Amino acid sequence: MKWDEIENEVCSVSRTLAVVGDRWTMLIIRDAFLRVRRFDDFQKNLGMSRHRLSERLKKLVDYGVLKKEAYQANRYEYRLTEKGLELYPILISMAKWGDKWMDDGKGVPMLYKHNPCGHHYSPMVVCSECGEPIDPHDVTPQIGPGKFHNSRAHSACIEKAS
Amino acid sequence: MKWDEIENEVCSVSRTLAVVGDRWTMLIIRDAFLRVRRFDDFQKNLGMSRHRLSERLKKLVDYGVLKKEAYQANRYEYRLTEKGLELYPILISMAKWGDKWMDDGKGVPMLYKHNPCGHHYSPMVVCSECGEPIDPHDVTPQIGPGKFHNSRAHSACIEKAS
Question: What is the ipTM of this complex?
Answer without folding.
Answer: 0.88
